[in-house]
Amino acid sequence: MAGGWKKLTFVAFIFLLAIASGWMMVETAGKICFKQSRSFKGKCISNDECVKACDTDMWYDGFCSNGLCICTVIC
């Protein structure tokens, strides 16, 4: 019977670990970080040009806002 409890405890631990890691992924899935592009020069009027500059800066995406190129990344 002692071996049965060990197996049950191990299975319960793995189950709880799987649930906890799932919760952590859900918490971080929607967070986006923003940063002004360092490589973009001039006034930002084209999102396409901004996206290219953000790619150069090693960020995921970008958009123009008030003449600035703002880069985004999921953090």
Q: What would you note in describing this structure?
A:
With 75 residues, the chain is α+β, with helices and mostly antiparallel strands. It has helices at residues 2-28, 47-56, and strands at residues 32-36, 61-65, 68-74. The mean pLDDT is 79. It has two domains: 1-30; 31-75, Defensin A-like (2-Layer Sandwich), CATH 3.30.30.10. A hairpin with a 2-residue loop joins strand 2 and strand 3. It has two helices and three strands; from the N terminus they run H-E-H-E-E. A three-stranded antiparallel sheet has the order 1-3-2. This is Knottins-like domain-containing protein. Residues 1-22 form the signal peptide. Residues 31-75 form the Knottins-like domain. Keywords: Antimicrobial, Fungicide, Signal.
Please state the second-level CATH architecture of the largest domain. Answer: 2-Layer Sandwich
- Broad shape: rod-shaped
How large a portion of the residues is in β-strands, by DSSP E? 15-25%
CATH H-tier superfamily of the largest domain: Knottin, scorpion toxin-like
The helix/strand class is alpha+beta
The largest sheet is:
3 strands, antiparallel
CATH topology of the largest domain: Defensin A-like
Over all CA atoms, what is the radius of gyration?
22 Å
CATH class of the largest domain: Alpha Beta
- For the largest sheet, list the strands in their spatial order: 1-3-2
Number of helices in the DSSP assignment: 2
Give the helices and strands as they follow along the chain: HEHEE
Q: How many beta strands in the DSSP annotation?
A: 3
The chain-level mean pLDDT equals 79
Residue runs with pLDDT of under 50 for 5 or more positions: none
- The helicity comes to 40-55%
Distance between the termini: 47 Å
Tally of structural domains? 2
Pfam families: Gamma-thionin
Signal peptide: 1-22
Keywords: Antimicrobial, Fungicide, Signal
Domain Knottins-like: 31-75
